Amino acid sequence: MQTVKSFAAKNGVEMTIRPAQPGDSCSIIDTVRSNAMERSYVLMEHYGKDVESEREYISGLDGAKSLLIVAAAGDEVVGCLAALQADAGRRPETTHILHLGLHLREAFRGLGIGTHLLDYAVAWAVEKGFKKLAANIFTTNKHSLGMFTKAGFVEEGVRKNRIQVGREFISEVLMGKIL
């Protein structure tokens, strides 16, 4: 599989998708934090809370079991996708599952970038022999729910009132795709 892919976003901006580098740490953290508060709160538990811990996280990824890619417009990282083997590969009965998390800066949503990131991850997962993809998406994120559905993911369940942000409870849709 080609590791760097280029394409023109719907707004004409030339984009590059490539594996994340330790030097992308600050941009990845900024991208994740640029999302809605409830998503950022939950996601920062999986990503480094600061630039140095994010660099260590990226450097320590096992390329056979996990993928972290970025979408960049020139030198600016505008999106990222993490694909991590279920249970970090420690449970033989779940090693076939790959969990996905996708994040785009608001100004770059609706331009096809998320679809390109997702397509890249699906091709990588097939190449690595994964059999199922999984994603957890908050019900407030209608755009992502639509994109994952269009990519062939189906709803497998809903975690009601998964998190509380202020006075609001937000549910989470569990989605999956068999490869």
Any overview of this molecule?
By secondary structure, the chain is α+β, with helices and mostly antiparallel strands. It is built from 5 helices and 8 strands; from the N terminus they run ββαααβββαβαββ. It is 28% helix and 37% strand. The protein has an 8-stranded mixed sheet, sandwiched between helices. Helix 1 packs across helix 3. The chain is globular. The two termini are 17 Å apart.
Number of helices: 5
Instruction: Give the N-terminus to C-terminus distance in angstroms.
Output: 17 Å
Q: Can you give the mean pLDDT?
A: 87
Reading the helices and strands in chain order gives EEHHHEEEHEHEE
What is the count of β-strands? 8
- Percent of residues in β-strands: 35-45%
List the uncertain runs: 36-48
Tell me the major beta sheet: 8 strands, mixed
Broad shape:
globular
Coarse structural class:
alpha+beta
Radius of gyration: 16 Å
* Arrangement of strands in the largest sheet: 1-2-3-4-5-6-8-7
Helix content: 25-40%
Q: Quick summary of this structure?
A:
With 179 residues, this protein is of the alpha+beta class. The chain is 28% helix and 37% strand.
Give the SSE map.
Layout: E1 5-8, E2 14-19, H1 25-33, H2 37-43, H3 51-59, E3 66-73, E4 76-85, E5 97-104, H4 113-128, E6 132-138, H5 142-150, E7 154-165, E8 168-178
Parallel strand pairs: 5-6
Antiparallel strand pairs: 1-2, 2-3, 3-4, 4-5, 6-8, 7-8
Helix pairs in contact: 1-3
Question: What attributes characterize this protein structure?
Answer:
179 residues; alpha+beta; 8-stranded mixed β-sheet
